[in-house]
Amino acid sequence: MNIKIQNTEDKVGLALFTLGIIFLLYTSYIGLFKLGVWIDEIYTLVLTTLPFDESFFIILNDVHPFLYYLILRIFYNIFLLFGFDNITVIGKFVSLIPFYLLGILCITKIKNNFGLLTAGLFFLCLCSMPRLMIYAIEVRMYSWALFFVTASLIYAYEIVKNPSSKNWLIFTVLTILSCYTHYFASISSFAIYIVFLAYILRKNKSLLKNWIISSCIVILSYIPWIFTVIFQISIYEKDFWIAPITKRTVFSYIYFVLSPANDLVRGNELVTPTIIGTLCLFAFIFLIYKYHDEFTLDTLFVFVIVPIIGIIISLTLRPFFHPRYFIPVLGCLWMAFSILLSKSFSDKRIFIPILCMILFIGVVGAVDFNNLHEIDVESTEVESNYLINNIGSGNIVISNDENVNIFPLRYYIPNNQFIALNSNNTSIESSINQSHIIDRINKGSSVYYLDSSQDKIQSISNEGYQLEEIPINTNTFEYRIYKIINPMK
């Protein structure tokens, strides 16, 4: 990799790229050395440590494709070969990898196509703009979805410059990987293909044949998963958790993307307007008005198509779009922004104030990111200490539901026997009266019961069991814990 500094513009670009590295190293330090997770990450981590056949069955019932889980499992097994088994650190590390890969693309493909200034601006935005630091270390599929979609966009541009078979192949493979990583990465890739088709029909119809071939390959590659998608939709059709979309929700999307993240948006929280977010929006609009070109407009169309599709589905079928589903396509947004801002370099009255605003958002965002992550760190520590102190290890834990509580329990106190009441074990008695459970009880294991709905408490008492409720000293739990005093009654 040869970086030639030819002018002041290149020097500024290299400095900005270096700043991006500093932000990414800061994010990496927070993620790898201050461990904190929330329930979705716990789900991912436990799923990775389960036997493959069991985990794959659970994935089929999830609302996401399987590729990310496979990537994490591969890295987990590699680390195990070297004797390292801290699944939380491994998960954070795997989530960070796409940002380092994007850094490589910035200093190679983007630098070659748009110059070092654009490459430096883009990497700085990727590593410091709102929400991206959070998702860089979240043990979910969003950082990989961001990488695959952004890399797809980069290679779509490569094809325009050099429509070689190699570039078409890479573009097609990246699209397939996107589709198997997250459903909104699929929609993002669909947007890229549609916008690319519009370009081809306008400017270069010779690319149409290969576009059709590429599209057919992607569609054919996705057919094996279509039946799973239909199955997943049928499972969650009636009880998906996303709230209905309103005007306030749509307005909130703008500030989710442009305002420093001073709150966690994991449920149906709305992001309130901020002054800095509004200034960033005005700066963006101004840059589009003054410096737009065909590629930046196409790239922005790709970005805009994604929430439009999400909102249409949400309004016509059922709520389907959440702000975090922006993450896969945010690379497209900041790519357009970086190109536009780099064009203003000769006019320091425009370039310097907007760059200062971006740096301010990054610094404020870094502080907010650390503060928000501390919430997860503290919650993780509280829950871990509570469960270890009150349940410990080597015991039997029965849950009132097959899906409730099992994942956090397996994460915090893995060295226990977990049983879920289901069609096979409909009562405490049927759960306990198994030879291996009786043997463990006779050897000193205690029996605990976790209940999230209180609908089985009376029936347990009717079975003749005595329950002692263990006081919960934290509001992070959504269930009650009981110790069964007389498991052998």
TrEMBL record:
UniProt keyword annotations, A-Z: Membrane, Transmembrane, Transmembrane helix
Presence of the UniProt keyword Transport in the record: no
Annotated TM spans: 12-30, 67-84, 90-107, 114-135, 141-157, 169-199, 211-233, 270-288, 300-317, 323-341, 350-369
Protein's recorded name: Glycosyltransferase RgtA/B/C/D-like domain-containing protein
Species of origin: Methanobrevibacter millerae
